[in-house]
Amino acid sequence: MGLRESLPEVICDIPGPQTRELLSRRDASVPRALCTTTYPVFVGRGDGAMIEDVDGNRLLDWIGGVGVLNIGYSHPEVVAAVRDQAGRYFHALFNIVGHEGYIELAERLAAKAPVRGEHKKAFFANSGAECDENAIKVARAATGRPNVICFSGAFHGRTNLTMALTAKKSYSLGMGPFPAGIYRAPYPYLYRAPEGLSEAEAISYYLGELERVLDEGTPADECACVLLEPIQGEGGFVPAPIAWVQAVRRLCDEHGILLVADEVQCGNCRSGRYFASEYWAEAGCAPDILTTAKSMGAGVPISAIVASADIMDHVPMGTIGGTYCGNPLACAAALAVMDVFEREHMEEVAARIGATFMARLQSLQAELPVIGDVRGLGAMCGVEFVCDPVTKEPATELAGRIIRGALRRGLLMESAGTASNVIRFLAPLVMTDAQLEAGLQIYEQSIREAVGLR
Questions:
Q1: Strands 182-185 and 238-239
Q2: Can you give the pTM of this predicted structure?
Q3: Which of 25, 168, 289, 343 is packed most tightly, with the most Cβ within 10 A?
Q4: pLDDT of amino acid 36
């Protein structure tokens, strides 16, 4: 059986001997900030949802490069597209010498993105942080205003501006000073809403907190945009309630503020739609600007910013773009990824995988009170572990034990959330049914072991 169809198989301890040698070399040559001990794994090859490490262990990857590998490792069509492009030319700096791949990708993304406006335009950057930063540049140019509202739990990147936008300060320790003009409101984290509130009351509460930022933080007429993730990633896989988004959209319209959807992690079919903000558009609250990255290029660095022509064409000449932005190899990869997503109806695949995952974990939740919440959209799901279902004290150490137990059995998983007590599900959408079942069995075994059950 080839690697793509294989099941998890651990043939030696993790880390094995070759991995231990590479870890030693890594620690000697790479900054300590990048030398995690949680995942002592070096990939030898990857195919589909599986990797084989340098010691021969076969691991099912439910991290997927933190959302980069919706289409899986080494998809043959992407490999062929990049190889073909490399045979013609590697690079063309689009601000100077254009190439058709950039234009075709911009056209196709503009047609796909659920942003407001009849005529849409797109341009490209290299990473999630870059596309979020560029979205703010676009919003400031279009509105003539300086300020930005973001949210608790947000993660938008590690550049100076996006570190200021990111809520969890372990991502920016000692890196200040940060830019002014950034204001933060509470994100509608319904599982941890003030005690005693119904869902409708909680949504009203969170809207009131946003209005308070406009009253006590930035004046509305100085606010360029509200930036939010349709499903928070690092914040704990928390979907934004549609009723709240509708209210935010009305508030933005009332004050001439642009609404920006950060779909760096939740875009590209992960949510059960091509873009999660399609759910917003269906509810009459489409964003003005959309950003996306991660799975857009299947691992080749590329990100995108999409908005109406009316918004985009306010940007002054020379203020956007960059050396590698919209690189021909990256555009070729992204176009091939779109072909596969569309032909294989990957958003429907994500919905099916997510439904199976949610049903199994909700069934386990009924048995094990340490599972406080199971939530998500499509195949972007989070399981929040708590010490007590009433107090909801985060079970951070328990989540860590589950992750380590799963790794010993051949399953890669990762935590999220402010307290790192949420285990995220970001498996490649090309995972087979047998691999999904094997992963769910390992997950359940690891939870039971971590809580002292067999």
A1: unpaired
A2: 0.97
A3: 289
A4: 85
Residue 453 · residue 374 · CB < 8 Å: no
Tell me 394's DSSP state: B
Beta-carbon count within 10 A of 52 CB: 17
Q: Which amino acid is at 280?
A: W
Return d(Cα 90, Cα 79) in angstroms, integer. Answer: 14
The alpha carbon torsion through 202, 204, 205, 208 (nearest 10 deg) reads 160
DSSP 29: H
Exposed e or buried b per residue across 53-76, where buried means at least 16 C-beta atoms within 10 angstroms of its C-beta: bbbebbbbbbbbbbbbbbbbbbbe
What tens digit of pLDDT does each residue of 433-447 get? 999 999 999 999 999
User: What's the rounded Cα separation, in Å, for the pair 139 and 256?
Assistant: 11
336-374 pLDDT, tens digit each:
999 999 999 999 999 999 999 999 999 999 999 999 999
Percent of the chain with pLDDT over 70: 100
CA 368 centroid distance within chain: 28
Ordered structural domains, the chain, with CATH: 3-61+345-450 (3.90.1150.10), 78-343 (3.40.640.10)
CA-wise closest residue to 71 among 52, 49, 53, 50: 49
Kindly give the interhelix angle for 100-112 and 328-343, rounded to the nearest 10 degrees: 40
